Every structure is written in C-alpha cells, then in structure tokens.
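User: CBPO Carboxypeptidase, Regulus satrapa:
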Amino acid sequence: FFSFQILQNYKTDPKISRFLQNLDLYVLPVLNIDGYIYSWEKDRLWRKNRSPYENGNCYGTDLNRNFNSSWGSVGISFNCSSDIFCGSGPESEPETRAVAQFIKSKKSDILCYLTIHSYGQLILTPYGSTTKPPSNNEELMQVANEAAAALAGKYGTSYRVGSTALILYSNSGSSRDWAHTIGIPLSYTFELRDTGAHGFVLPAHQIQPTCEETM
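Assistant: Predicted structure for CBPO Carboxypeptidase:
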C-alpha cells in the first residue's frame, strides 16, 4: 500500500512530492519470502524462515532474533522447534545477512529505520535486551509520540510508545536494535492493529484503514 501510494501520487500530492525531493526511501515489502509463502500454503501463522536444521528434521529461524545485537541473550530459544529460535549464530540466515549488508553499505545516509510488524498498536523504541535507554532516547520518544498523535488523527486509533523491554517484552537480536547500535539515530518497530481481539488474523475490512493511518 505504501509503495503504491507513493508511485501513484508523487506527481499530484504536494506532501509526497516534497517528501521525495528531500529524502530517499528504501522499501523491502517482505523479508521472509519463504516463510511468507509457507504461511499461505501450509501453516497460516508460521513466522520463521524455512532454513533446515538438524538434518532437515527442523525448520526455521526467527529472523527478528537473528541480528547481531545482544544476540542470544534474552527472549530467545536455542531449540530449533521453537517459534523464537534465534539461529545458530548472529546473521546465520541469508535474509538477515542481506539486509545487514545493504544497510551497512548505506549507513551514513540513513536517518531512520522502520520495521513493520503486528500486532499490538505499539511504536517501539530500542532496546529489547535491556531497560537502559539509548543516549538519544529523548529524541526517539519525541518523534515516536508525534507519530502516534498523527496516526490517531486519522481514525482515532491509539498507539502506545516506549521501549520494547519496558512496554512489551524482552528480546534480543532484533533488526530495530541492531540498526540503532550501528549508528542509525531513529529506529522503530511499528506493531500494527489490533490490541488482541483478532491478533494476527486481522479482519480484511481493517487492513486498508491500518495502511492509511500509518501512511
């Protein structure tokens, strides 16, 4: 939806035109392609990739616990059968390595990193592995609170703002934390609608409003 709106309206929407005149956007619609396909064909709520482990008797790493940021320290599992298996090592997965290599190649130009998940209606700041705030926490919180206010202005949807460890749960190896630790100042996770009534299986009629309010 985001990419479609940009491509369709950049010539006619003054806000989008100004935005693109001043910023470059790098958009990765789906990181976990193999897992995404598997979720449609076999297991609707599959979250990991499809890397084989244990001689093919076990599959998948949680890519959002596989980045090289306090990897393997908290909120993970070393058991391959777990949904939160963090892999055999930091960046053990090809998807994680590809993203990390690309971002590092552009690091000096990147101001903000966003990773989009569901669910919970949260805007999460670093870190997940510790409750100690980043050095620029005041800036992170200010930007996130302004984003939450703007988002609520569309349909009244309320998003909570805070660090992962403080308002959600502890975890390590996330792409958000990793992006911040390598020097990207503004790094966030958006946990989209809803707050639990439907969870991961959001009704179809809520999908477009979710896109519109977070645009």
